[in-house]
C-alpha cells in the first residue's frame, strides 16, 4: 500500500498548538497557523470553522482552549491531541469537536510523517497513532481521518518466522502503513481488511473492476484453454502476454490481437467477453 499525497485543499485550516521552535517546520505541507499563547487561542477561535483541524502538543494550551470556549456549543472541527488527556475533559471535547483523537507523543507518528499522513489522499487507510490497553487487551488505532479502530491483542498472531508481538513496544511506522509491536510488524491494509467491513467492500470493488479489464479476460481465457504464456511464442513473447494481462500495455497492436485470438481459437472481439 502506498501513501498517496495531494495538495492540501485551500479550505483546510490548521491550528498547531505548540511551543517548540522547530516542530512547526515539519508540518509545513499543511500550512499551519502556530498558536503558542492564550491570546493566540482567542484569535484562533474567532476564525475557527467546522472544518478546522487542531493539532496540540501542549496540554496546557489544550486546557486553555477548552476554558476559552464560551456561549452555545459549536463545532470547532477535529482535534488531534498529542499529549496525555484528562478524562474529565472528554465531555467538553465531545461537545466542541466532531471528532478527536488523543495519545502520548511517542504513540503518534513523528511530525513530518504525521503531516504526510493527515493530508494523504488515502488518509483513512493509514494509522497515525494509537494506544494500548493492557487491562482489556486491546489496541485503539487512530486513522488519518481521526476515526478509531479498536483491535484485540488476539488479532496479532505469531508470525510465520516465530516472532511474537510485544505490546509494551507499540509504534506506528512507514508513514502510517505499518504497526510495530517490538520486532513484530503488521500491515495497516491487512488490519483494515480484517476489521473494517467498509474497507473490505472498497477493496473488493476495486478488485472486481480490475478483473473486468482486457488483460484479466485474456488471463481467464488462456487458463480456460489450458495454455501457458510461452504457448504464444514465437509470434508473441511470453513477457508481452504477461504485460498485457497485468494491464501494462496501453495500446495493443492489431496484429498482436489477431495472433492472440488465433492461438486461443476465438474471434478478437470475443476475448473481452470472458
SSE layout:
Layout: E1 14-17, E2 33-35, H1 38-47, E3 53-56, H2 59-68, E4 78-81, H3 90-96, E5 99-102, H4 111-118, E6 127-133, E7 138-143, E8 148-152, E9 170-173, E10 178-181, E11 184-187, H5 188-195, H6 197-210, H7 214-224, H8 238-245, H9 254-264
Parallel strand pairs: 1-2, 1-3, 3-4, 4-5
Antiparallel strand pairs: 6-7, 7-8, 9-10, 10-11
Helix pairs in contact: 1-2, 5-6
Please give the count of helices. 9
Which spans have pLDDT < 50 for at least 5 consecutive residues?
Answer: none
Q: Order of strands side by side in the largest beta sheet?
A: 2-1-3-4-5
Summed up, the domain count is: 3
Describe what this molecule looks like in 3D.
The chain has 274 residues and is of the alpha/beta class. It folds into 3 domains: 14-117, Rossmann fold (3-Layer(aba) Sandwich), CATH 3.40.50; 121-205; 213-273, 434 Repressor (Amino-terminal Domain). The protein contains 9 helices and 11 strands. A 5-stranded parallel sheet has the order 2-1-3-4-5, covered by helices on one side. A 3-stranded antiparallel sheet has the order 6-7-8. A hairpin with a 4-residue loop joins β6 (127-133) and β7. α1 (38-47) crosses α2 and α5 (188-195) packs across α6. The longest helix has 14 residues, at 197-210. The protein is elongated and about 75 Å long. The chain starts with 13 loop residues before the first strand and ends in a 10-residue tail after the last helix. The mean pLDDT is 88.
